[in-house]
Specification:
The complex is a heterodimer of chains A (257) and B (329).
Chain A lengths: L1 E3 L2 E3 L3 E4 L6 H11 L3 E5 L11 H8 L4 E5 L6 H15 L3 E4 L2 E3 L4 E2 L1 H13 L3 E6 L3 H9 L6 E2 L13 H10 L6 E3 L5 H9 L4 E4 L1 H4 L4 H20 L23
Parallel strand pairs in A: 3-4, 3-12, 4-5, 6-9, 9-10, 11-12
Antiparallel strand pairs in A: 1-2, 7-8
Helix pairs in contact in A: 1-9, 3-4, 7-9
Chain B lengths: L4 E4 L3 H12 L4 E4 L17 E2 L1 H4 L5 H7 L2 H7 L9 E5 L4 H10 L4 E4 H7 L1 H4 L4 E5 L3 E2 L2 H14 L3 E3 L8 E4 L13 E11 L9 E4 L5 E7 L2 E5 L13 H14 L7 E12 L6 E5 L2 E5 L5 H18 L6 E3 L5
Parallel strand pairs in B: 1-2, 1-9, 2-8, 4-11, 9-16, 15-17
Antiparallel strand pairs in B: 3-7, 4-6, 5-6, 10-13, 10-14, 11-12, 12-13, 15-16
The chains are: A alpha/beta (257), B alpha/beta (329).
Chain lengths: 257, 329
């Protein structure tokens, strides 16, 4: 079990709900992966008079926790308004906060992110900020009231995996008690397993599954990888060493010193 | 069985079903509140690409297979079908999207710069690689709808504005309006634009792959191009947004900078009717047969659905995309 803002969730895999070939395939992906949380974008789908309701109803029927997001918001005001709308639509204080600072790479705007996080926590939201691996920024977000961090693995949609392992390790080590979800940039299950082995609490991905040739199979692959990585972390892995270490004694050989 | 048949809706689904039934001698009438094909039907806003193989990138197998009937069907109705293929390209940093697209589709040839220049000289300057789907085709959707309707009227099919009392079989082809009867039908919003760019000459539909802003462009002749289309999970049928239109225009500009000087003729928006698997259905419910959920494949799949509906009515052949229920509370 992993806990975010006091809510326990059985699965450490979170899936986005965008870009699937169809809602039916989206549902299969959730079933086969065992994902426990679905992120949903509301900015663009809302329209007038809840025009996106048919799709949101499909997401609600997945029987997972819904984490609405502010994807596509480029300013503090836009993100705050979208969060307020999401709270009303999904009846949850959870919000995955995205404030995009660079339209091309979708890199977070650290300044806007902290400001929006402060406003939203003051309004009673439980904020999941999409951030970088920067430890100073992490510190500011925690000061602003966030109790979960979502550092990127790589920019959204790139599928590059963990591009700054050193930075992510440092972040994890600096704040060992803060639940952290590696969000964005994962392309393969092995990368998700790697994040879990590094003591991250969960991973969130979307494109890697939605754009796979067989999204449901890829989702299952990620589900298993997340479990494998978590098991490895809990099992306290061996330390790597430079020399081969035979697991049975070699008869007739002296110690190699 | 061929008693009197009433078709509800004169969009692409209704007109194709009507044409197929009329050709087989069925006594029928078509009910639509509007006197002519127009912006009230989402097929009015369609691209008109008959591109079953390209659609196979994301669509499931029936779309690819059934879509292959479309070009010949439209030609048989006397609609002008341009059968010169379609081209798929990607900008420099998205080139790997082209590999993915090639892996997931059939019926294409790889073109290098020279090959592309030979068929589309205006693209050969800008792209060194493309996929060419030679067997694909396209039509002009609005002309095709008008043509079907005029042919039906000439053949003596009655078009009525109001349903009135109904005896016999009803074929409900109302698209998204049938949400009142089909609870698993949803709208998927699409935004499109029509441009006039006389400096650009393209012979066939072009798809520009992009992870976030995929674009297709269909030449309509006389320097006119249809640009499409967004795909947003919303049933909203109005309100083309600046963001969507900007994305479409940006993609067109990236495809060829000469689009920067294009005249904007039209910006359109509507919602496509879709079932959860984005595949069409023929759903029988008592005396009513629903033909719906054509999603983004109206002109591509309506011919096959029309054939199946006619086979069902005339011969009792159960269509592969049929289900049956007894209404929903």
């Amino acid at each position: 079990m992993v806990s975010f803002y006091g809510t326990e969730v059985a699965s450490r895999l979170m899936l986005g709900t965008a870009q699937y070939p169809s809602p039916a395939i989206l549902e299969q992906a959730f079933r086969r992966s065992g994902a426990g949380i679905a992120t949903v974008s509301v900015r663009r789908e809302a329209g007038g008079e809840r025009a996106g309701a048919a799709f949101w109803d499909l997401v609600k029927q997945l029987d997972v926790k819904v984490l609405p997001n502010t994807a596509g918001c480029h300013s503090v005001r836009e993100a705050v308004t979208t969060a307020q709308m999401a709270r009303e639509l999904f009846d949850t204080p959870w919000i995955k906060l995205e404030v995009i600072g660079h339209a091309d790479t979708l890199q977070p705007d650290p300044f806007g992110l902290v400001e929006a996080a402060r406003i939203l926590t003051d309004e009673g939201f439980q904020v999941f900020p999409y951030t970088t691996e920067d430890i100073v920024l992490a510190d500011r977000l925690l000061e602003a009231g966030c109790e979960v961090l979502m550092p990127w693995g790589a920019p959204i949609g790139t599928g590059l995996g963990l591009t700054n392992i050193y930075g992510l390790r440092t972040l994890r080590a600096q704040f060992p008690d803060v639940p952290m979800v590696v969000d964005a940039g994962l392309g393969l299950p092995s990368q998700a397993a790697q994040a879990m082995e590094m003591a991250f609490d969960a991973v969130l991905l979307n494109t890697a599954v939605a754009k796979a040739g067989d999204p449901a199979a890829m989702a299952e692959g990620f589900g298993r990888a997340v479990e494998a990585g978590r098991l490895a972390y809990e099992a306290d892995p061996m330390e790597p060493r430079d020399m081969a270490a035979p697991s049975t004694p070699l008869i007739g050989k002296a110690f190699l010193e | 069985m061929t008693g009197p048949v009433t078709i509800l809706g004169a969009g692409v689904a209704g007109l194709c079903v009507a044409s197929e039934l009329a050709a087989r001698g069925v006594d029928l009438r078509v009910v639509d509140p509007q006197p002519q094909p127009g912006p009230h039907a989402c097929s009015w806003w369609a691209g008109g690409m008959l591109a079953p193989f390209c659609e196979g990138e994301t669509a499931e197998e029936p779309v690819v297979r059934l879509g292959q009937e479309a070009a010949a069907w439209w030609a048989r109705q006397g609609v002008e079908v341009t059968r010169n293929g379609s081209v798929v390209i990607a900008l420099g940093r998205d080139r790997r999207e082209l590999d993915r697209f090639a892996r997931r589709t059939e019926g294409h040839a790889q073109l290098d710069r020279d090959g592309l220049s030979r068929i589309e000289p205006h693209l050969g300057d800008r792209f060194d690689r493309a996929l060419f789907f030679e067997s694909e085709a396209h039509i002009a959707p609005r002309a095709a709808l008008a043509h079907l309707r005029a042919s039906l009227e000439r053949a003596g099919v009655r078009f009525e504005r109001e349903q009135g009392s109904v005896a016999g079989t009803v074929i409900d082809c109302r698209g998204l309006a049938a949400q009142d009867a089909l609870r698993d039908l949803r709208g998927v919003k699409g935004e499109m634009a029509v441009l006039r760019a006389p400096d650009i000459d393209l012979q066939r539909p072009v798809r520009l792959l992009h992870p976030r802003y995929p674009l297709y462009l269909v030449p309509r002749g006389d320097g006119v191009f249809m640009l499409g289309a967004t795909q947003i999970e919303s049933g909203e049928r109005t309100r083309a947004t600046l963001r969507s239109v900007t994305e479409l225009f940006n993609a067109a500009y990236a495809l060829h900078p000469a689009f920067g000087e294009a005249e904007i003729l039209e910006i359109g928006v509507d919602a496509r009717p879709a079932f959860p698997d984005n595949l069409p259905r023929i759903r029988r419910r008592g005396d009513t047969i629903h033909v719906n959920g054509l999603f983004r494949h109206g002109f591509l799949l309506a011919p096959a659905l029309a054939r199946m509906v006619a086979d069902l009515l005339m011969q009792g052949t159960i269509p592969e995309v049929m289900d049956e229920d007894h209404g929903e509370r």
